[in-house]
Amino acid sequence: xxxxxxxxxxxxxxxxxxxxxxxxxxxxxxxxxxxxxxxxxxxxxxxxxxxxxxxxxxxxxxxxxxxxxxxxxxxxxxxxxxxxxxxxxxxxxxxxxxxxxxxxxxxxxxxxxxxxxxxxxxxxxxxxxxxxxxxxxxxxxxxxxxxxxxxxxxxxxxxxxxxxxxxxxxxxxxxxxxxxxxxxxxxxxxxxxxxxxxxxxxxxxxxxxxxxxxxxxxxxxxxxxxxxxxxxxxxxxxxxxxxxxxxxxxxxxxxxxxxxxxxxxxxxxxxxxxxxxxxxxxxxxxxxxxxxxxxxxxxxxxx
Length: 303
Fold this sequence. Notes:
- This protein is of the alpha/beta class.
- It folds into 2 domains: 5-65 and 142-302, QueA-like, CATH 3.40.1780.10; 69-137, QueA-like (Thrombin, subunit H), CATH 2.40.10.240.
- The protein has helices at 134-137, 152-157, 180-183, 222-230, 238-247, 286-295, 297-302; strands spanning 29-33, 40-44, 56-61, 63-65, 69-72, 77-86, 89-95, 105-108, 111-118, 124-128, 165-168, 188-193, 216-220, 233-237, 256-260, 273-277.
- The strands form 4 sheets. Strands 15-13-12-3-14-16 form a 6-stranded mixed beta sheet. Strands 5-6-7-10-9-8 form a 6-stranded antiparallel beta sheet, with no helix packed on it. A two-stranded antiparallel ribbon has the order 1-2.
- It is globular.
C-alpha cells in the first residue's frame, strides 16, 4: 500500500505511445494478469472470450464521444465543451483564457458564443446564440498524448462500435477493441457514464488522498440493473464501468441516473467488479491507481 503519488510512477518511453489504432480493432495485444498467482502472460485481444467463466456478465459503457472541440480560427480561440447546462449554455474550457473573460463574444461553429461566467476552477459558462452544429464544425477530442490533431479517421475509430448515448468528451477506451462479431459471442450489458475532461487531468498533489476527483454523470437502466444483480461475476470493461459499479450500494444495484466522484486507489475492496479489462494508463494517473487497487500495485507496475 502506498499513499505517495510518486510511488505510481514508471518509465514510459514516448515512442511507445501509439497515436493511431491498428487496422483491425480486435488485433491488439492483450496482457493478462492473474491476481491469485501473480502470473503475467502475453495474449491477443481476440482471445478475450476464452477468459470468461459461466455466469459472467461483461459490462460496457455505451457513452458516445461528442465532437467537443470548437475552433474559432479568426481569433485563434479554442472552446472545449464539457457539459450541457440547457438553454444553449455549456460549461467549457477555453484557450487562451485571457481572451475569454466575462462578456467576450466570438463567432464559432456556425453561431456566436458569449462568456457568461468564469468559474473558480477556470471553466467558463458559455451561452451560444444557437446550438453549435458539432457534426459540421466540431472536432473529436483525441487525447493530448496523441500529439496530433484529430482527423476524419478519428470520427469512427475514437468511438466504440456500440456507442449510443452522446455525452462523453473522451472515449471509454477499453471498449475500442471490441467488434460487433465479438459482442455477439459474449454475454454483455450496457450502462452509461459520460467521460469528462478530468480523465486527462494530472494528479498535482504529493499524497494520493489529497487529490480531488472530477465528477461524472451516469445512468443504469432497469434491464441492466436486473442483469447485473443476477450475474455470478461482473467483468468491467474499463475504469468508467468500474467506477459506476463501485459507486452503487452493495445490494442490490438500483436503476436510475446518478453522478460519481469516486476515487479508487489502494487499499480498496471491490464490492462489485470481479474482473477488469483496461488499457494501459499514464504514470501517476488516477486510472493507474484504480488498476493498482484492483490487481495490486507491485503486480501492475511489474506488468
